[in-house]
Specification:
The chain has 15 helices and 16 strands. The chain is α+β, with helices and mostly antiparallel strands. The longest helix is centred in the middle third of the chain and has 20 residues.
Amino acid sequence: MPFQAPRGTFDILPDEEEIWNKVQQACFETARLFGYRYIETPVFEESGLFQRTVGENTDIVEKEMYSFDDKGGENISLRPENTAGVCRAFIENGLHNTTLPSRLFYYGPMFRYERPQSGRYRQFHQFGIECIGEASPDVDYEVIKIAWDVLKILDFGNVVLNVNSLGDSQDRYLYSEELKKYYSKYLNDLPRVDQLRFERSPLRILDSKEDITIKISEDAPKTLDFISTESSIHHENLILNLDQLSSIDKEFKYKINHRLVRGLDYYNKTVFEYTSDSLGPQGVLLGGGRYDPLIKILGGQDTPAVGFAMGIERAVNELKKNIDIEKNYVDAVLIVTNDDLRIQSAQIANNLRNHKIRTIIAPRKSIKAQMRFANNINSKCAVFIGHDELEANKLSIKLLQEKSEQIDIDLNDISQFKKILSS
Ligand code: HAM
C-alpha cells in the first residue's frame, strides 16, 4: 500500500461514529449539568507554553512533543495536552474579570510522540474539565464527581479512583529531598532510566513502570507524611466528600495511592486518576488534579484551579466490546426504473430529505442490481420510481427488513411515508 496512516494514529470509520458520539454526548451533557461551558483553543501553541507549564523535565516535554519552527521562525508545538492552552486563553481573554470560578470544558485532538502500544497513540482525543478561580476542596470533589458521572453513564465497571496529595511547592521540595535519601540506598539497583530521574526529578521515580523500581518504591516515604497542615486539611476535606459518595453510591470506590504523582509538573495538593483493570497496563482512563501555581507562572494573577482530562480512545475501545453497532443509516433507496426519470428522482430525493428521511438514489444499474444495493446497505425501504407511479402521483414503497407488500402513498403526503417508516 503506498500510504498508511502515520504510526500511532488511526482513522475513525463510519461504523464507529455512533460510539464516538455516545462518549462525546456523555461528556458534554455531564459537563453542562454541572454548569461548565465549552472552550476551544488552537491545536498548536508556542512551544514555550508547554515548557513552562507541563515542565522541562517531564517525558512529555523532553521526548514527546511534535515541535517545529514555522515559516516565520517561531518554535511551535502541537498541543500534548490542553490545560496549558486553556490557562493561556483564560489570561489572554481576561476571564479573571468574569464571575469566578470559570467552569470550562473542552474536547479535541492532542499529540504526543509516544511509543505506540495498546491505549497509547500519537494523536488521541481528550475531554477535559478545568475549574479556574476557586481554592476550596469542594471543587476538587466537583471535578472528581463529574468524571465519575461520565464513567457511570458509559457503564464502566471496575473503575477505581486513585487519589493522593502532593502538598504545595515547599512540601514538594522537602518530600523530594526525603525521596532522594531513600532511593540513594538503592541507586545501584535502579534501572538506568530511574537513575537519571534520581537527580533531575526524584518524584518521577514513583511513577516508574519498571518492575524492580515498583518493588523498591513500596516502602518509599509517603507524600501525605510531608504535606503542610493546610494541605492536610484540604486533603481530609476531600476524603470526607469521597466517603460520603461511597456511602450513597456503592459502585464508587476510591483508594489513597501513595505512589500517584502524575507525569506533569504543574500539580499541587490533590492529584487523582481513575483506573480500570480491564484496560491492562495502560489502565488510566483519566487523570487530573489541582494546579494552583500555573496561572501565575504564565503571568496571570494568582488563581487556583483544578481539572482533569479523559482519554477518549480508551473509553471508546472499552465501549466497543459491549455495543452493537447500528447498521441502519438510510431510510430510503430510490429505485429508478427508467433512466429518463433520474432528474425527477433527484427532486423527489430532495423532498424526502427536506422531511428528514435519509435518502440515497440507487446507482444507474438494472432494477435487480439497484434492489441488491438497497438491501446491501440495509436501507429501511426501497421506493420505486417509474412512469406509472409518477403519472399516478404516487410513490411505491417496499419495506426491506421485513417481508412486506408494496405500499402506494400519495407523492404529496410524505407524512404517510414517515408513519410507515416508524411503524
Ligand atoms: P494526562 O494524564 O497526561 O493529563 O492525560 C489525561 C488522559 O489522557 C490519560 O489518563 C489518558 O486517558 C489520556 N492519554 C494521555 N496520553 C495518551 C496517549 N498517548 N494515547 C491515548 N490516550 C492518552 C493531562 O493531559 C492533564 N492536562 C489533565 C488535567 C486537566 N489536569 C488538570 N486539568
